[in-house]
Amino acid sequence: MALFAVLQTTFLLALLPLRTYQSEVLSEPLPLTPESLNVSINSTKQCLHLQWTVHNPDYHQEFKMVFQIQISRFKASNVIWLENYSTTVKRNQVLHWSWESELPLECAIHFVRMRTMVDDARIPAPRLWSNWSSWEKADAQNSLGDHPLYVFPKDKLVEEGSNVTVCYISMNHQDNISCYLEDVLIYGRQLDQNVWAFEFKNVSFIRKTGTNFYCKGQGDPEGVVLLVSKVLEEPKNFSCETQDLKTLTCTWDPGNDTGLIQLPSYTLFESFSGKKTLCKHRNRCDWQVTQDSQEMYNFTLVAENYFRKRSVSILFNLIHGVHPMAPYSLFPKSVSATNATVTWKVYSIGSSSALLCQLQLLGEGKVIQQHNISVRVNGEYLLSELKPDTEYMARVRCAYADHFWKWSELISQNFTTAEAAPSEAPDVWRDVTFVSGHPTVTLFWKPLSKVHANGKILFYNVVVENLDEPSSLKVLSVPAPANSTKVTLNQSSYQICVTAHNSVGPSPASTVAISGHPGNENVEEGRMNGTEDGFPMSWKPQSRNATGYVVEWCDSPQHLPCVLRWKNLGPTNTDTVISSGAFRPGVRYNFRIYEISTKRMAHLLEKKAGYLKELAPSYNPKVNMSNLTSHSFTLSWKDYPTESQTGFIQGYYVYLKSKTGEKCHRGFEKTFLTDNSVCCKYTIDNPDQKTFVVKDLQPESAYEFLVTPYTSAGEGPLDDFRKVTTPDEYSHILIHIILPMVFFVFVIMIICYLKSQWLKDKCYPDIPDPYKSSVLSLIKFKENPHITIMNVNDCVPDAIEVVNKPEGSKMQFVGTRKSPTETKGTKPAYLDLLPTEKNYSGPGPCICFENFTYNQAASDLGYCGHFPVTPQAPHCQLGPLTSPEHLLKTLEQSYMNSLGEIPAGEANLNYVSQLASPMSGDRESPPTNPPEPALCSEYKMQMAIPLGLASPARSENSSLSSTALLDPREHCH
Amino acid sequence: MSLVNDINTLVICQVLSALCLLHLIIFTITAPSFGSPHSHLSLSLAQLQDQGRPFSNPRFSSPTLSLETLPSTDMPFEIWHGLEDGVRLSLTQEAFWSFSQHFRIAMVDQHILHHGDSIVEDQLWEARLKAKGLAGNLAAIMTSLGLPSPAANTPLGPVPLGDSAYRKKCRGYVIIRDYSFWTDRAVTFLGELKAKYSQ
Q1: ipTM of the complex as predicted
Q2: B54 at interface of A, judged by CB pairs closer than 8 A
């Protein structure tokens, strides 16, 4: 019964509204006019905001209505917008509607009106529009000041890519206003008498401080800044995770900054719980996990700015998003040479959850061990198989064990294992030199690798054992890092052991044996070619019992001292490739291959030389040219070192260029040089040939030659041609004639010089001796056998001149005679020699005579005769001679006479007697009646007088050729 | 006589200190701007480069733009040179105090215009400190010379040209332009003072 009553009541209640509705529908529809229409301007958003009410006292319910709105610009008739706005209207409700103008509202007056129509299904048709409301005016220019120029909109926020319209109002109707967008002149369209508009489409972001638009008239420039925003991007990589199951952290990539001071807001919304939070950061947001055991979360991230809203959602399971915090307190403990124990701690997650931790061991940057350990609070693990004295890194990361999603951050710790004794013998080699028959051994060893050193090598022990005298043992300790030592030995066999020592102990010993005598060095050197990988070489074993082979070389043979390198090879190796970073192209490397005997003795097997890559010679030999003839010359370059070349010298090219451009000689081939000049080339394919004879040349021709070596890589530089010109063909003949002639003349001259005295004696003696005169013999022999020679003793000295002038004894002068004009005017020099009476201070008259017969002029002229003297010449008298004036007069007279009376070409053989004093006398016949002054007279030596001075001697009165000289120093000795 | 010397020495020290500060201002702001060969403000360069054209254009000049709250730059040099030292000291001190106030406004403007770029704001802050320091130095010189102490510097009232982003940029431009003018004038004036009291 009660149930029935309840159902009845419910039914009645359900019918009640239906009844009410039926009564309203049936009511008469009335037109509803908008009331209290108010229009306001929002300059920031450039919006017209409309507000109105609909008053209908007859209806108490909500109605669906349509409002038709008209907007006009500048004048009411200029309708620019018509829109129907539908909404549900309650009784006395204040309605709002906004319209955003593309043109800044300040630049134009706007008019708004509207009408309504009920658009509700409950109201029967017909549905009629109400009357228009009156026009409402929206005029923003009323609020402007008294500036002459205004630009709108101010601080307009614009999204990149959108369109925007800017306008200016010239209050004083200026017409010379120009407007610029970022200094670029812009032209707009005139909207009204004093209003211009500028429309910009698809504006772009330039800078955060906005894009400047300004107009200049007569006053200050006025402008606006368009604050252009980049488009808000949708958040990317949106994800959430938790470290401790208490706090969720959601992160995302917000994309590019919009560039506006108005940053976009980010809101995190969870749909299951209906909660949301405003994020404090633009790329991260924290969300507190509630205690209601919510496992699933549906997050929506909403990014919003002035222009748009972006959102992205994820469905998140809390357990599946656990990202544990990084472990901490990672320490190595109990570190030995090969083992170490590491411990660490983790942050617990929940009360019963465990973490899966991964322990990695890194050596030299690489993971060499990896272990997974389940950890609740403290982790520990023993690392084994470690290498001594090695630095390792242990690092740990952990993940949620119940559901692995992501490893935590890594933590790491370095540790170094303890040292151990070196595990391998050092690689030792030796260089043996014999000084005075005694071997001097330089031992070299390579530093042990880190793997084998097992610690820091402190020193090397070198034990030298004389095998011939086992008791003799010599120990050397060489501190590291030295890698060589020198040992001088006797002519015995030795065994040398080298060990490396670190702080723990020695390494195994490396042994070399040294023979006391030089081995066989006479091994022919082979050649080989290098490759990119190095020098491949092979050899033939000499002994079947070889314990190994060693290849040695110098890394930089061009630099001394040699940096010895070697490579140890096992007994089964008969080939290898020697490579080194120090190998360079164009360098000759010499390799020596040794065989190691069972007694560790090294025997030279082979020598090899090669180039990693042969290069063309870098310079040419210095060529000497010799044996130059008109048809050939010889070239030689004996000192050219081929070993230091950049490749194996295979021979030489001899280049020959001729000025005439004639064809190449036999053996030469024509070639072109780099400068396109033609040249002849001769190839010498024997590198040991270092001379070459260039033949078949043309005499008196210019040639240029060059000798350059060549290797497999090419020839040397062709830039140093030398010039040679072949001589005339007959020049050598001339040389053969002229040289002997010159030599002959020279010999003659020498002979003449040496025999000049003899010649003089023969031809023109100083004191002619008639008896010795060859002329006389000639005369006697030829013509006049009766000729006699006057004896001087028969003459009165200095007074008589006897001239025998037979006609038949005439002889022609051989030489040239001086002309009279040459002798004329020449004042006899002897006049100055004559003393005056004043000068004479002697005790009495004392006259010394000199023989002036000999005439220098005659001597110089080569006369072999004497001038003729006339018989009329007065006799020489002693008395007047003591008077200088008289003597001078006499001499002048005789001189003048001689000039007049000696005709040219009439020189006959005359004899002029010598003046001889009785004191000196003629040994054969002294004078019988010597004059009285002769007591003090003496015979003077003949003196040579220059031609001019001696001229008077040719005079007729040359009987006085002996002139008295009154020199006081000569008096009366 | 000794007192006069002491005063002169004190003035010289203070003038030198002020000159050092001025040179520091010029040294730290060394870039051409506003087309004036004496205006060297890297501050202006940094700030105006960020404002965009026309402000960043080196040839940009708008002499009609002015701020009535800024110290006047209208006085011809001949008249300025004819003023007494005390008057010129007072005017200079007031000017730099005013600039220190205006730089604060410029900083706020830049913060609004250029959110996130602290370089320009830092430079404006530095310029403000130096202008303030120079005003203090000039006040000390006035005191040493026995001139009336400068009036208590009152806080700056409303400054025009701040009602839009464009006008904020204009305001910054005018502040830096006039600051350059007063810096050049102060360098010359303090140089004269130094020469005068060194004799």
Answers
A1: 0.80
A2: yes
